Amino acid sequence: MKKKNVKKILEVLNDLKSGTISKPNHGICVNLLLALDCTDCISEFTDTAFEHIYGSEQSYPIEGTSLGYIQNKDKWNPDTEYGKKRLELLDKLIEFAEGKLCKINYLYSL
Question: How does 63-94 read in b/e, with b if 16+ C-beta sit within 10 Å?
């Protein structure tokens, strides 16, 4: 994955963390897709991140199913079970992106 793509993804993740959520009816992945014009790099990032975090790829890591995702109208509320899980996942994705960026920077320094 290219350094510039990881940096863009990390920037959007940090924006989400700070409360700048352009589409509050959607989760992390859709907000990433809408903020960045790089579907392939977002898919690559989320696939590898979910593999690292959960041990496998996940389509709906918070609600578990597409129906659960659609029915959840309060996706970012930290007082709800799914809101807490989403914010915890966001922290893990930020940590993963920062680690990926560190590895890329290290490889460039060799």
Answer: beeeeebeebeebbeeeeebbeebbebbebbb
pLDDT for residue 92 is more than 60:
yes
Mean residue pLDDT across the chain: 93
State how many domains the chain has: 1
Convert the pLDDT of each residue in 4-22 to its tens digit. 999 999 999 999 999 999 9
Dist. CA 67–CA 101, nearest whole Å: 34
Q: What range does the domain containing 38 cover?
A: 3-109
Asked if 31 and 23 count as a contact pair (C-beta separation under 8 A), the reply is yes
What was the pLDDT predicted at 110?
56
User: Strand, helix or coil at 75?
Assistant: coil
Half-sphere exposure of 58 (CA within 13 A, CB side): 19
